[in-house]
Amino acid sequence: MKSFVFSLCILCGLSTAIAQHGGFGKERKGDANPFRFFYLSYDLSASGVHLGPELDFLWTKLEKVDCETGTKLVDKKLLFVPNFGAVFTDNTRFNLYAGLELDYRVIYHKGGIFELFAGAGYTRQFGNGLVPVGDQELEDVLAESQGFIMPTFGLGTGYDFRKGGADLPVVLNLRVLTASLNPSASFFNPSVQVGITYGIAR
Are 108 and 74 in contact, with CB atoms under 8 Å apart? Predict the structure, then answer.
């Protein structure tokens, strides 16, 4: 438990410090970092949430692409995403996690998005899987908790309303991935994330 809290504090401190200095990207514009709010369907059955700021990592650039209808502008970014969240496996078990993700994202001229991402984190599982968590003593829940390394990777699509001409700093996201809360037991767990990324002054 102490290691999870320590990891979460490090992630929050790092994301705050980077946000205040405008992120890593050299061509970044604006003072605010977009923040994601995702619903997570872990293993296509368990419900959860996935949250975190999107920080430009090494670069973000605007490319001109020539095609039959003229020149199109395409955004390409490599994002660094500290993230955290929770997964409620059932009423006898729940998981808290914190992690880091690298996200390669392409935003096309009409707002369509393609992204490829991978990450790793630390998850803490609470509950014994037998008795509902609400019926257990807090000391027992904490004592029986287990920690695991959580790998994730996948791809996604979506729509950026700013590229579509709307003055709305919102991106719709749909991502398919594999994420494992306990790799030693089951490494591949097909999952879905859906939600929005909200940002201002971008």
Answer: yes
User: Strand pairing partners for 157?
Assistant: 114, 174
Other CB atoms within 10 Å distance of the CB of residue 53: 22
Rg (CA), the chain: 19
Give the chain's domain count. Answer: 1
Q: Round to whole Å and give the CA distance between 166 and 152.
A: 32
| Residues 6+ positions from 135 with CB-CB distance below 8 Å | none
Reported as a pLDDT band with limits 50, 70 and 90, residue 141 is low
Q: Which domain holds residue 130?
A: 2-198
Confidence (pTM)? 0.76
Phi, psi of 49 (to 5 degrees): -130, 150
Residues in the chain: 202
Q: How far apart are CA 185 and CA 165, in angstroms?
A: 47
Residue 102 confidence (pLDDT): 94
- Higher pLDDT, residue 70 or 55: 55
CATH code, domain with 161:
2.40.160.20
The candidate with the shortest Cα–Cα distance to 11, out of 132, 115, 112, 101, is: 101
